[in-house]
Every structure is written in C-alpha cells, then in structure tokens.
Design brief:
308 residues; alpha/beta; Arc Repressor Mutant, subunit A; D-Maltodextrin-Binding Protein, domain 2; 11 strands; 40% helix; elongated
C-alpha cells in the first residue's frame, strides 16, 4: 500500500461510505453527487493500489486494508476535533471564541434580549457576532455557525430548522385614524429594488399603491427605525414590532408572512464541545420564544435534529 497524495478530503469520503454503507446515503451526508463520491473513492484506491471496499448485497463494506484506512481516518478526525477545541481558545483572555454569522435584524430584534443571560451562563465563551446574509461562510471557514432564513440548496453544512419567523404590518400610533385604510391611505416605507426576491418586497408591491410608498430602504435596522419613528407603515418581524409600544400591529393576530429559520454548522464542528454549547443555547432560546418569533400560536413541526 502506498500513501502518496492522501489528503483529508479523500479520507472523509472513505469514512462516510464506511459509516453509511451505500453510495446514495454517503453522498447525501457529504452533500456531493454520487458520481463525485465514487470517483474520489476509486481515485484513492488507484493511488493506494489496493481495494478499500467490497460490495455485498448492495452495501459497501471495508476490506481488511480498507479497515486500516478507516481506523487511521477516525484517528485523524479525532485529532482534528481536538485541534478545533484548542483553537477556539483566545490566548489573550483564555476564553473560547465562537463566530456566529447571523442576519442583523435577528440580532437586534431577538437575540440581543438573550445575550446577557448567555454571558452569565457561559463566561468562558465569547460570541463573535458577524451580521451578514452571505452564502458559504461556513465552507470558507469565515464563521463556525450560521443562522439563515432560507435552507441552503448546496454546501456541506448540517442544517436544522430552528423555527418560524412571522412578519406583520406595523405603523406608529400617531399615523392611525379610524377612517383610514392602513393598506391604501397610510404612507409606507418600502423595500429597495435590491430586495425584490424577499416576500416582504412582493407583499408591499402587490398590496400598497405605489404612490403611498414614501421611501424605500434595503432592509436592516434602518428600515425598522424609520417605521418606528413614524415615517410610514412597514412590514416588520413580529418579534420586533410587538416589542415596541409606539407601534400598532395593523394586520391582525396572524402573521402576513412566515419565513423558516435555519441553523447551519459544519459536521466536524458540531462535535466541538464549545460550539455544541452555543448550538444548544440557540435552539433553547428559539424554542422558548417560538410563539413570539412566529407572531401567533407556535407550530409543532420543528425537526429534532440536524439533517444533511
């Protein structure tokens, strides 16, 4: 057996096939095509000049040589996890640092109210909040955990549905009059064209006369602040709008728009002790406040564990 040109990505494919036993299941776990997995395994066998798997009754089982590779790969995986644990510690203050990529309004509208309790419960962990909505930040190692409103269509992240986030129409109380139709008579703060894929943009475009849109913003805390200051009605997440006493929800008890909230983490970081504590905390506070996030009675169809 020759060990030339073996890298960790090759061994990850071997581990996945040994664990899941079928190409389909292993490829799904790695979030790659079956042809990619098959090609990587075959190329590694060619480099090592040995067969790593036998196919028995439709399932793949490691050969005796394959078990050597699997055992060494597991040792490397354990060493990688231990190294991740070591490197989460900031040498300047001895605390572990976990980077959370999260949509800015989810921080200002929801997470901020829980951060004090997190710091008290986990004084040895420093959260680094990266407010953004870019794709692939985990695969590029720019963050350890991500929270998004859309389930990623590709990538290697393990994903879990955290809950649902409702949005409704709100306006400053000073704008409200009994004889005014809140859709057609109030001024509105709309969303800029750059946000045309958002359901909030489409709702305003469909339901509000264009001449009633006083200004547009590309979202974020600036949008919330303009609505809160009375520049116009707007669509806010219920967890934001309901918390502001100067705002009135105009669209009734049920949310107008419901988005899914997704928690993303790379599979190898999921087993990091410190990262796991942050994941469990995020799951805990979102489940605790599920009704407030949805803006009405919470639904019970949330997944209990991560999927690939």
């Amino acid at each position: 057996m020759h060990s030339k040109n073996i890298d960790w990505d090759d061994l990850r494919h071997v581990l996945a096939l040994a664990q899941h036993q079928t190409m389909a299941a292993a490829a799904a776990a790695l979030r790659v095509h079956q042809t990619t997995l098959s090609r990587r395994i075959f190329a590694l066998e060619e480099r090592l000049q040995t067969r790593l798997f036998d196919r028995i009754d439709g399932r793949f089982a490691p050969t005796s040589r394959g078990m050597i590779v699997v055992r060494r790969a597991r040792e490397m995986e354990s060493a990688s996890l231990a190294l991740n644990d070591d490197l989460t510690l900031d040498p300047h203050h001895g605390r572990a640092v976990v980077r959370l990529s999260v949509i800015q309004t989810f921080v200002t509208g929801f997470l901020a109210r829980h951060l004090g309790a997190f710091a008290a419960q986990y004084p040895h962990i420093q959260l680094e909040l990266i407010c953004e909505n870019r794709d692939s930040v985990l695969e590029h190692r720019e963050a350890d955990i991500a929270i998004r409103y859309v389930r990623p269509a590709q990538g290697q992240s393990a994903v879990r549905k955290l809950g649902e986030l409702g949005s409704a129409a709100y306006a400053h109380r000073s704008l409200l009059q009994a004889d005014r139709d809140w859709r057609r008579d109030l001024p509105w703060v709309g969303f800029a064209q750059v946000a045309d894929r958002w359901p909030e943009f489409r709702w305003i475009e469909t339901n509000v006369p264009p001449e009633r849109v006083a200004m547009t913003v590309n979202g974020g805390p600036a949008y919330t602040e303009l609505v809160a200051r009375g520049y116009g009605a707007g669509l806010l997440t219920c967890v934001e709008g309901d918390a502001r006493p100067n705002l009135q929800r105009m669209s009734g008890a049920s949310p107008l728009i419901v988005r899914e909230i997704w928690l993303l983490v790379l599979p190898e970081l999921r087993r990091n002790v410190t990262v796991r504590k942050v994941l469990d905390w995020i799951v805990g506070v979102t489940q605790q406040d599920a009704s407030a996030l949805l803006g009405s009675a919470a639904r019970a169809d949330l997944s209990a564990e991560y999927g690939e």
